[in-house]
Structures are given as C-alpha cells and as structure tokens.
Amino acid sequence: MIEEPFAGGDSFLHRADPRAKLVLAATLACVLAVSSGWQAPALALCIGAGLVLWARLPGRAFWRRMLTINGFVAFLWVFLPFSTPGETAFRLGPLEVTSQGLSLALLISLKTNAIMLAFLALVATSDAASLGQAMHRLRVPAKLVFLFLFTYRFIHVINAERQRLVQAARLRGFKARSNAHTYRTLASLLAMVLVGAMRRAEMTRRAMLLRGFNGSFTTLRTFRMGLGERLFLATGAAYAVVLILVEVLNA
Amino acid sequence: MPDAPLLDLRQVGFVYAPGASPVFHGVDFALEPGQRIGLFGPNGCGKTTLLSVMMGLLPASSGEVRHLGRPMRTEADFAQLRRGIGLLLQNADDQILFPTVLDDVAFGPLNLGLSPAQAAAEAREALAFVGMEGFEDRLTHRLSGGEKKLVTLAGVLAMRPKALLLDEPTSSLDPATRHRLIHILNSLEAAVLTVSHDWDFLNLVSGDFYTIDSGRLVKEAAAELHWHPHAHPHPDQPH
C-alpha cells in the first residue's frame, strides 16, 4: 500500500536527523510557494536535482512519482495559457495564448517540481515512523502526530479488509462492468470498508485505554544532531536565505 | 486489603439496550493472585462482552466490578485497574497501534510514566520473554498472524500486569505459536483468565474452569474434564 521505496538507502540524506530534514523541506516549500519570480524556483529545481542525485534514489520509483505530479501540472498547461488575461503571444486557431498565461504555467511547473524534488530527497528518505517521532520532537501537536502514525498503521489494515471484500465478491462471480449492478456492488463494498474503519477506530480507542493511555504522548526515539547535521542545517538555512535574496532582488 | 482478589465481580449483569434480553446476569466471579482460570463458552455467548465489562470498556448494567477490593465506579477507577490488569484482544490487528514493533510494545510502559529509555528496556525484555527478540525494528503490518499475536502479548506483558485476561488467544494461531503461547502462559507469575471455546488449550493453561450457560457463569469441577481419542494425521505435531 505505502511502499516507502526511498526510505531504504544509505546516503547522508538517509542517515541525517529527520528533524533537520523536515524543517528544511518545510522552509524551502514555504519560500518557493510564495516566490513570484522564476529565478528562485529555477535555482531550487537545480539544487533539488542535486539533492536527489546525492540521495541516490531508485530511478523507476523516482520517475513514477515525478510523472504523477506532472500529470497535475499538465492540466495547468491545458487551461492557464488560454484563460489568463494579458498580451497575446500567438494564436491557436480561434484561441489566444497569452504570454502572461505561459509564464504563469511555467512558474507553477518550476515551483511544483522544485518542491517535489526537495521533499523526495529530504522527507521521503525517512520512514513514516521516524517522521512521526521527529514531528513530535518538533512539537507538532500530539493529535496530528497520532493521526499521521495511525493513518500509516491502519491504511494497511483497511486495505487488507478491502482486498478481502473484493475477493469475496470475486469468489461469487463478481466482475466489474459498466452497469448498475457493478456500481451498487462497489458502493456497498465501499460502505463496508467505511463501516470496518469505524469499528477499527472504536477498537483502537479501546486498545489505547487498555494500555493505560491518558492523553499524553511520549515517543521512544531520541535524535542526535551530529556535526554533519548541524553543518547541513546551516547550509540549508543559508540556501533558503539565498532563495529569498534571489526572489527579492528580482522583484 | 492485601488478600482482596485482583478482580471481583458481584452480581454483574449486562444488557445492550433497556428492555433487551441480558447478555449475562448475576455473575459472581473472583480472580485471585496467581490463579489460572479457564472460561469456556460457545461463540456468541457473551465472553468478549464480559471481558469488556471487567476492563470498564463497557459499563455494567447492574452489580459491581472490584479491583483489589475497591469498587470501580468511574473511568478514572478503571484507568487505575487497567494499569494492573492486561487484556489481550482476540484480533491482534485491533491491538497493534504503531508502525514499528518496539514503539508498539513500549506504548504501555510509556503510559505508565516510564522514561523512554526505561520503556524501551521493558519493551525489549517483554519481547525477549515471548521469544521475539530481534523483531524490535520490524514493521508491524509485515508480521505474520502468529508474530502479531506475540507482539500484542509482549505489549500487554511490558506493563507487568498482576493479571492477564485473554480473549480467544488461539483463534487463527498456527500450531507452533500455539505451543509457544502455552509455554509462555505457564511460565508467567501473573494470574491468568483465559476465555476460549478451545477446551484442549484451556485445559493446558488453567487450573479452575467456568462456563457461560444461558447468561450465567457456572463453575465446573475440573474432574469432569476427561480425555477422549480423536483422529488426525501427524499425531506428533502439537495440537
């Protein structure tokens, strides 16, 4: 279900303190999200590619992720060049393509890919369990950390339930077609999965009570910031400042 | 009261809705320190409901649950009870909360107020006790059914309960894990209440026996247990 293909490596980025990586990725995402010039995102795209190379991420899984995100970006290229008001760059039949539309689509593409690269290299290189613990250490509210960890834990269980139901349907000769019977059956399967998830939530509450849960959340792992990580974080911070400067100077 | 039972039910009854027929009623039951009780009942006779009432997950409709002689009335009372009595749920997937084994087993000790280092040590010890050392960093959703069962058992034992309640522990267990479970239960110091419809298993881990019969708890004389021959291939396998 969630395979975590990038978490298994052994590069510096894999071994680095997940707190540092989370902070850095979040900072970069914020800076890039609000930048309005193309220079900062373009720089971040290059650095991001460098980070991905440094982390030696498995190629196939990496390109599949990039393809998925750019599937969404492609939609922007379908609409933005035509719908953004501005000077006409050229005409496609009856449609006007504006230069403002083109540059907006380009800007969003750059930002999206730059943020994606940063997250793949920095966040996806830690497994979900350590990310949850790191979030807790960074004083993210305990409820959010629980939601994150439990989602990861139970999405497998809920998926197994779904597969059992689908199998049960197949065993009795069900084949998905484009007809009312199929839609009714799938709706019913979905309802069963939801009911199962509700039951699961209640059982989880009970299981927590049984083990003495009292509302406060502590985690086992303690992280240590080594010299390498401190340097890495300082470099990352300097990099974020550079991105901001590039943005401000080009404004 | 040092001699008070760990768990003491007095005339306890439970109905799901007012007017519905009771799942059980007038249940008197006591679990003494170190005692081994087997509770037999067919499927759907209210065994799981009874365990939920004992642990305060469901409120008793009548009567009283006591822990070490103190009546349990509020959620805070039961929170105290759950620090001393552990319940192993029938379905291990209901009980595993965390992505990695060590985090999951350490959850109870952390709730007891231990430091992360102490909790991790307790968790490792509990895992070793159930024969699961080396599984600390494994992902819980990748474990087999038997491994999950042993991890949940370690999670309960890591809280060092004075009493352990087990809900159908052998359902969906492979013979090897079943054998291991019998060995683990018999080397525990805690009192154990096993609820099951598996007579063979109950007989191997219990000294006293009860059954649920039409909503009432009945004590069985152990002498009524008897052996009878049965047939299957591989008679040398534990079963």
Strand tally of chain B is 10
End-to-end Cα distance of chain A: 44 Å
Round the mean pLDDT of chain A to the nearest integer and report it.
88
Q: Kindly state the percentage of residues in helix of chain A.
A: over 70%
Helix content percent band of chain B: 25-40%
Q: How does the helix and strand content of chain B classify structurally? A: alpha/beta
Instruction: Describe the strand arrangement of the main beta sheet of chain A, using strand numbers.
Output: 1-2
Low-confidence runs of chain B (pLDDT<50, min 5 residues)? none
H-E order of chain B = EEEHEEHEHHHHEHEHEE
Number of helices of chain A: 9
Structure description:
The complex is a heterodimer of chains A (251) and B (239). Helices cover 73% and strands 4% of the residues of chain A. Chain A is flat, with a radius of gyration of 23 Å. Chain A folds into two domains: 137 residues, no CATH class; 77 residues, no CATH class. Chain A has 251 residues and is mainly alpha-helical. The mean pLDDT of chain A is 88. With 239 residues, chain B is of the alpha/beta class. Chain B has a single domain, classed as Rossmann fold (3-Layer(aba) Sandwich). Chain B has eight helices and ten strands. Chain B has a six-stranded mixed β-sheet, with helices on both faces. In chain B, strand 4 and strand 5 form a beta hairpin. Chain B is globular. Classes of the chains: A mainly alpha (251), B alpha/beta (239). Chains A and B meet through helix 6, helix 7 and helix 8 of A and helix 2, helix 3, helix 4 and helix 5 of B.
Question: Can you tag this structure with a few keywords?
Answer:
A: 251 residues; 2 domains; two-stranded antiparallel ribbon; 73% helix; flat; B: 239 residues; Rossmann fold; 6-stranded mixed β-sheet; 4-stranded antiparallel β-sheet; 8 helices; 23% strand
